[in-house]
Amino acid sequence: MTAPLFTRTDTALGDFSLRPVDPGADAELLHGWVTHPKAVFWLMQGCDLTAVEKEFTRIAADPFHDAYLGLHNGTPAFLMERYDPAHRELVGIHAVEAGDVGMHFLTAPTATPVHGFTRAVITTVMEMLFADPATHRVVVEPDARNTAVHALNKTVGFEVVRTVALPSKDAHLSTCTRDQFLATRGETR
Asked: Are 85 and 129 in contact (CB under 8 A)?
């Protein structure tokens, strides 16, 4: 198993860490997550196991896109993708600035939700992205209908820039600078 690249301890919920997705080893787990009804906005509902493994193999080979498996206290619990918006997702739609990083995240489906868990996940994701001093702003493009993620994004500092038409959805193009993220935590640079 690949060692975590980033670890964060949440005082209430424990340890969160991220490691690169292993397309072959993780495909079955990820297939269950991305095809679950809760993951409708992930846009992989109709994919079979082979298609999921193929997609994560493609991401692993892409120099502008990375996928990470998130662990909570050592157990797989979320997925995060990081991409370069100058080369993926938002090409020709978003005026990319130096230090922009694109991001997607998905929490695993569960029958026993834990209060504050998704907030702890997105905080971990943002901390990992901003741990790289080259990252100045995180860019996301969630489906305009995904009101739950819009509210969650706001809690960590994202502001909606505008609604954009992407090939698969209308999306709220949103950004969060390092300073905006730190302000939500009562911190400054």
From this structure: no
CB-CB contact of 10 with 70 (8 Å): no
H-helix or E-strand spanning residue 9: strand 6-10
| Sequence-separated (6 or more) residues with CB below 8 Å from residue 130 | 138, 178, 181
Contact assessment for residue 153 and residue 174, using Cβ atoms and an 8 Å cutoff = yes
Spatial contact of 33 and 106, defined as CB atoms under 8 Å apart: yes
List pLDDT tens digits, range 132-185.
999 999 999 999 999 999 999 999 999 999 999 888 889 999 999 999 999 998
- Whether the model clears a pTM of 0.85, i.e. scores above it, the answer is yes
Query: What distance in Å separates the CA atoms of residue 178 and residue 137, rounded to the nearest whole number?
Result: 6
Tokens read off for 90: 């938002």
Give the C-alpha separation, 168 to 85, whole Å: 16
The neighbour count for residue 78, using CB atoms within 10 Å, is 23
